[in-house]
Write a structure and sequence with these properties.
Elements lengths: L3 H7 L6 H6 L3 H42 L9 H5 L5 H16 L7 H23 L3 H33 L4 H59 L1
Helix pairs in contact: 1-8, 3-7, 3-8, 5-6, 5-8, 6-8, 7-8
Amino acid sequence: MISAAVILQSAGMRASIWSLVLHAGLFAKGILLLLFGVSIWCWAVIGNRLRLYSRVEKADRRFLEAFRKLAPAADCRLLCDQHPESLLAKVALAGQRTLDQLKPDPTLPTSARHDLARHAMERSASDETAALERHVGFLATTGSVSPFIGLLGTVWGVMSAFLNIGAQGSASLVVVAPGIAEALIATVAGLGAAIPAVVGYNHILGRLRELTQGTQQFTSEFLDRRMGGTAS
């Protein structure tokens, strides 16, 4: 395939990305503007979520270290309040509150109390994980749709090239260059928006999976410590 630079030089245009954009048609510019906006939003989501996850992970490590220094049956509400960004602290707080609410009922078996606490902690973990997943689905949508949006611009550019050939009765590079240029830049823009979105989405899912597994392990540890404290 003839490169974009050769096509543009044959058409008397300066061979640069900026020149491709300036000489594109109105429809192609609309496609490029849409892809540019989508790409900027994807980078904003990636940056925001990764910074948030880093803060949560650091807070979780600090909270878990302090939690393990407590007595098995100690009240951890104050400790949870001291780590507001910790996902584990929020899960522990849900379990502690549930256990506190069930204390006045002496007829309820210990295993049943801990099952109720486990359910409360699981619900809290689910709610907090859903908040951490906010806007992440947009990355998957961008990764799936952007190549097709770029393909739409590509098809439009090729169609414009054939229309120019039919209108001018010539198949020279000067005639077909504008349409081919639109097709090339739209393809590149679509891939440029999709690739970072897919990579970011997969990386963020991995981080979320680690956080979710951490809450599951902590729930078991929390209830085991409470069972041990109760038994003693």
